[in-house]
Amino acid sequence: MPDRLSSLDASFLYLEEATTAMHVGSVMVFQPPDEGFDYDRLVRLVSTRIAYVPRYRQRVREVPGHLANPVWVDDEDFDVTYHVRRSALPRPGSDEQLEEFVARIQPRPLDRNRPLWEVYLVEGLAEGRFAIVTKSHQALVDGINAVDIAHVILDTDPDREEPVTDTWRPTREPSDIELVTEALVDAVRRPSQILDNVRGGVADVRAIGGRVVGALGAVASTVARSAARPAPTSPLNAEIGEARRYCMVGTDLDDYRKVRARVARGSYSDDVTVNDVVLATISGALRSWLLTRGEAVHNATTVRAMVPVSVYDAADTTRLGNRVTACFVDLPVGEPSASMRLHQIAFAMRQQMEGGQAVGAESIAGIAGFAPPTLHSLGARLGSAMSRRLFNVVITNVPGPQQPLYAGDARMLSSYPVMPLARGQAVSIGLTSYDGGVYFGLNADRDAMPDVDVLGQCLVDSLAELVESRDSGR
Description:
Blueprint: H1 7-14, E1 23-31, H2 39-49, E2 58-61, E3 71-74, H3 80-83, E4 84-93, H4 95-105, E5 117-125, E6 130-137, H5 149-153, H6 176-189, H7 192-198, H8 202-226, E7 244-252, H9 253-264, H10 274-292, E8 303-311, E9 323-331, H11 338-354, H12 361-368, H13 375-385, E10 393-399, E11 406-407, E12 410-418, E13 427-434, E14 437-445, H14 452-468
Parallel strand pairs: 4-5, 8-10, 10-13
Antiparallel strand pairs: 1-6, 1-12, 2-3, 5-6, 7-14, 8-9, 11-12, 13-14
Helix pairs in contact: 8-12, 9-14, 10-11, 10-14
């Protein structure tokens, strides 16, 4: 019989609404090789790579009467050209036009009658570039049976069209009677299963909640101790609709390292990390953005962020890393000094990390099926699973490899994540460091955040302020 979705994976299907699509995405910009790169090349590449990931040719099948969680079944009519699509911008296409394209296609729900992923080849970018835009459902990307489609098609070496013998043959789809029979057999093996499903999965939810509480207990205690109140009121939290805006921001990794190095030489030689500098940059950007909106900003104003933090070994830049922690941090947007914001954030993060109050990779694996290639998906899962009353915004920061990656022979120039919006969140902030750059993807509600491009410019200005700050090392 086919694999059954876990309760957590199934929840991403059940909780999906028109305003809260439960898929993650990426925008990858490439420089084509001399011989070019076209749609047929991408189709061949994807067809070759998914031969190693059978889940990408499976779809979700509901069990009659909802007697058990849905199952994965082979798509007997699988058509790779349905999932790999082609589009183009009017030449020479600008980054702003690419952002608008992403904002249009990312909110559209994936077809539940087919495998839950899509890839778009976007041609016509200025300077001869092209983009690959991906969408993968969180129910699909569990980090065990399937990783994100972007990871599937990228490689550290240019692909020389090595042929792969595809021996995949779809397994016959089970009938309704077979699905019901298997659900009943499972119920006999686990007598509580039927009762759990009849009660709407209450027991499963409690079990998952228990695992979350067990893993995140220390972090929750930190939040309770530091701020025994819900997250502060913020324009970052609003009722959202179906339409989106998207903004890409590219920055230089060396700038973050310069700030960190200067702080390390000062009298306050905190254990400041590059991630702390990133959070300080975001904090300064949010401060400036709030001021442009005419919001009241005073010394005690904060924005609470939920930050799933991944840490890679600096000696091994070929891996995304295997250490992950999830922290809550009150970003000090009311603090006017850029260097002071950095020190406050570094202290708050270190307090959680050293105090054993951050969540380790082992605990996170138990919550969300952790795997290094799907860290952004992990961040989205944590953000979706936890009460938004605890935080204002989710920030996912995934350190990536610091050497070039390729789709076929095309070199990837930059990669911007597209994080989903949970209910009540006006914007999500994802960023990926790659090959000397740090690339932000801001996914925002179209009505609640008409000025997301202003926030994007504020990120650039905030980083420049930290780099130029003369008191960073005091």
